[in-house]
């Protein structure tokens, strides 16, 4: 009927007190003291990094203060997701020892979804930052892989290659950067006497330069 909530075939009705508690927390959140108490009890995984990836120093240096603050907020949310994953692994490890397959699957599926959410938050952070960078840097950083750092651990070499490429391109285009040739004449003026050879040589040179200019312009290499 219209207005009734959609229920999946495998719906579950939980304990009414738990339902009331979870609903309250979803709408109001945890108070700071309660959250701090929970966080302090959760152990840190020594062989699995669950913290939010750090924002690379090279990127932090060029972001506005608002962009940095926004990324900090997003990374704090990621850190909390990591804590939940860590806590659930305590339960999962105990279930594995007991060979409780049914509950292993439940907890394992929950952790997998949380790991995916953790990754999605990293992707969101990158997607928020990249549009504020220039086109070449954006394309270069978009190819990096997320590690303990948001844009990978090799960002210095990536940026160095990008700078070298920009420098090479500028060096190639410097002679043409100030020059925009006119199209060559289809029926050039024919001078008299000995001037004819020099004039035709200049026309051919102009035609070659104009052809080069058109190619570079089509490739969008001219500044």
UniProtKB/TrEMBL annotation:
<protein>
    <submittedName>
        <fullName>(apollo) hypothetical protein</fullName>
    </submittedName>
</protein>
């Amino acid at each position: 009927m219209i207005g009734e909530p959609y229920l999946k075939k495998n719906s579950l009705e939980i304990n009414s007190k738990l339902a009331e508690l979870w609903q309250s927390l979803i709408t109001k959140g945890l108070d700071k003291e309660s959250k701090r108490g929970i966080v302090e009890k959760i152990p840190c995984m020594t062989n699995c990094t669950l913290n939010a990836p750090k924002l690379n120093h090279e990127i932090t240096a060029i972001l506005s203060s608002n962009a940095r603050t926004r990324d900090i907020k997003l990374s704090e949310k990621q850190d909390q997701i990591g804590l939940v994953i860590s806590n659930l692994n305590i339960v999962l490890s105990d279930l594995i020892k007991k060979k409780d397959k049914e509950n292993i699957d439940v907890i394992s599926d929950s952790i997998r979804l949380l790991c995916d959410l953790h990754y999605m938050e990293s992707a969101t952070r990158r997607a928020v930052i990249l549009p504020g960078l220039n086109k070449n840097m954006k394309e270069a950083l978009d190819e990096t892989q997320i590690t303990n750092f948001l844009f990978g651990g090799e960002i210095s070499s990536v940026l160095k290659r990008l700078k070298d490429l920009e420098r090479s391109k500028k060096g190639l285009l410097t002679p043409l950067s100030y020059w925009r040739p006119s199209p060559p004449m289809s029926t050039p003026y024919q001078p008299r006497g000995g001037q004819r050879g020099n004039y035709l040589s200049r026309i051919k040179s102009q035609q070659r330069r104009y052809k080069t200019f058109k190619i570079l312009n089509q490739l969008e290499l001219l500044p």
